[in-house]
């Protein structure tokens, strides 16, 4: 089967307008012709075909992207693209594509040929992150901490414009301000329009003939700033505090991004933290655990006296309510848990040993008795079997 090359139709001629016609002129011409050749008004078969051509011309010339293709010498409704009225892909046709856009999608995933326009020189800035180390007392009760930020700020010489004093941006001559250059190629599928960023203006559509001597045309400069961040009470390790628009100023003086202050809590020499609760370990002598005693605990913001009951066992825990970390964005505080380690003496002098042996004898806990009747584990077995 031989392939016939498609010939671009004169859409301007169909509507009877010039190539420089405005959108309003094109719309007026279409309405005038549509009233004249509409099938309800003019039943002539030739008028019906004319009406189809008028609709096709208006469809093309009222779409900026399709009109641009026509101005470049192409035909967005060419038969090879399957979208021409009466072509192989038109109504009732069997073409593989519905329209010109489908060809674009097949080649470029729908990205090519679109009316992207020039890239803006002014763009939003990036966010910044800063690590801040704090003590437990500062994270618990809050603090106003000074920080130093090294970011991009607005160039005060050009106020973000990027141009030297008394000068302005110039329209790129290579792309006429479009930011991209296009070309039309004929393939076995029809006409394909390809676009690429203009290499002269880097896709901006404008150039800077005389850049600002301070920022070299970027509209921003890097500097070091000092800020004060308010840390709320109850923050935890790893949390981030957002300072709106305190990050990087964007290119061309664009809106600054945000600054995130990430909290890192230094280890405390006494307390460990789990959420809003605090934990600490206190060692008490064996005699104090047996007889009972009173401890003075220094919390983060006060001193508390707690009673250790007589007969306290190892690994016992005392709970001090509302002596932990204040709840973030709320009322109340966590608790303080005091874990008791009962200390057994490792060395005894003869008098101390005698006193302990006498004490054990009064309780029937002589060391020699534990070795009788099969030893300690045998006594445990007998206790479980009900022979004690």
Automatic annotation (TrEMBL):
Zn(2+) 2 binds at residues 172, 175, 198, 201. It holds the Pfam family DnaJ_CXXCXGXG. InterPro entries: DnaJ, DnaJ_C, DnaJ_domain, HSP40/DnaJ_pept-bd, HSP_DnaJ_Cys-rich_dom, HSP_DnaJ_Cys-rich_dom_sf, J_dom_sf. One of its GO terms (molecular function) is zinc ion binding. Binds 2 Zn(2+) ions per monomer. Transmembrane segments: none annotated. SUPFAM superfamilies: Chaperone J-domain, DnaJ/Hsp40 cysteine-rich domain, HSP40/DnaJ peptide-binding domain. Residues 142-224 form the CR-type domain. A zinc finger (CR-type) spans 142-224. It is found in: Cytoplasm. Residues 10-74 form the J domain. Keywords: Chaperone, Cytoplasm, DNA replication, Metal-binding, Repeat, Stress response, Zinc, Zinc-finger. Residues 79-92 have a biased composition (Gly residues). CXXCXGXG motif repeats lie at residues 155-162, 172-179, 198-205, 212-219. Belongs to the DnaJ family. Participates actively in the response to hyperosmotic and heat shock by preventing the aggregation of stress-denatured proteins and by disaggregating proteins, also in an autonomous, DnaK-independent fashion. Unfolded proteins bind initially to DnaJ; upon interaction with the DnaJ-bound protein, DnaK hydrolyzes its bound ATP, resulting in the formation of a stable complex. GrpE releases ADP from DnaK; ATP binding to DnaK triggers the release of the substrate protein, thus completing the reaction cycle. The J domain is necessary and sufficient to stimulate DnaK ATPase activity. Zinc center 1 plays an important role in the autonomous, DnaK-independent chaperone activity of DnaJ. Zinc center 2 is essential for interaction with DnaK and for DnaJ activity. This is Chaperone protein DnaJ.
